[in-house]
Design brief:
- This protein is α/β, with parallel strands linked by helices and 275 residues long.
- The protein contains 13 helices and five strands.
- A five-stranded parallel β-sheet has the order 2-3-1-4-5, with helices on both faces.
- The longest helix is centred in the first third of the chain and has 23 residues, at 59-81.
- The chain is globular and about 60 Å long.
Length: 275
């Protein structure tokens, strides 16, 4: 395994598309949403809480062996998935653990984060809700909110786990001055100029550029979206890469759009969605 790469993105921001673009390259293996970070984080909790570990006399040796355990475990996990030289693990939790990852990897992790206009992200959730009006899940709304207004649903999407925790992690990255340790990719740019963006990605990784066929992206990654109480198309992509259509105001209304630009101005401004 030459490189372990991490795709840790905003929801509804083309992260699944990015995975399947990577998968076209024969030197890359791309996972669907992956639980490796959950395994490592669970082990970290046990390491922190374990009386046996706390009782160790040589804490420096213990910490060194623990970090090797994390690194070796992740490498073994990846080697079991593929024999290709590069693997891209997709999971939202990676971007919230940059400093820890640096500690056990002994290098700066290669993390990419797809972002998108927050109004478009919320509009995408609203479209999912309208497609699945009889269902509720952490991705959409709870039972109490089903009969409410679009504006109130928008507020709920912003405060529910997929969006809120991703926003919190990005805000922390910016506040801690760690933005140089993660590569942000605007979904709008990825879909409008995919080859240019992928050339930049390969340059960052120190890999040879690959000429992709963006008119025929085969979906390699498969996920059981029924677990989210939705139809099995939450992570389905189109086989042709085309520019995103930003009709968010038609879907969620001007008041909701104005609220997002006002209350989440730090995000919208940083990524160039408002002045």
């Amino acid at each position: 395994m030459e490189k372990i790469i991490f795709n840790s993105s905003m929801p509804r921001a083309c992260s699944t598309l990015l995975q399947n673009i990577f998968a076209q390259n024969p030197n890359f293996y791309a996972t669907p949403t992956d639980g490796a970070i959950e395994l490592l984080d669970g082990a970290r909790q046990r390491f922190t809480d374990s009386v046996e570990f706390k009782a160790s006399v040589d804490q420096d040796l213990l910490l060194s062996s623990w970090r090797n355990f994390c690194k070796g475990g992740l490498i073994s996990y990846c080697n079991t998935l593929t024999d290709k030289p590069n693997i891209v693990l997709k999971g939202r939790g990676w971007k919230g653990n940059i400093n820890w990852m640096e500690n056990f990897l002994n290098e700066e992790p290669k993390i990419f984060c797809c972002v998108r206009n927050l109004k478009s992200i919320v509009a995408s959730f609203e479209k999912l809700h309208r497609k699945n009006p009889d269902k509720t899940s952490q991705w959409l709304i709870n039972h109490e909110a089903r009969g409410t207004t679009v504006f109130k649903r928008v507020d709920m999407y912003l405060k529910n786990i997929p969006v809120s925790i991703s926003l919190d992690r990005i805000q922390e990255i910016l506040e801690m001055g760690n933005e140089s340790k993660i590569r942000f990719i605007r979904a709008e740019n990825l879909t409008s100029n995919p080859q240019e963006i992928m050339n930049q990605v390969y340059d960052i990784l120190g890999e040879e550029r690959y000429q992709h066929n963006f008119n025929n992206i085969e979906q390699i990654t498969k996920e059981n979206d029924v677990i989210h109480a939705l139809d099995n198309d939450l992570h389905t992509i189109k086989n042709k890469v085309e520019p995103l259509v930003d009709n968010y105001e038609e879907i969620i209304g001007k008041d909701a759009c104005d609220m997002i630009d006002r209350d989440y101005a730090w995000y919208q401004k940083y990524f160039g969605y408002i002045d």
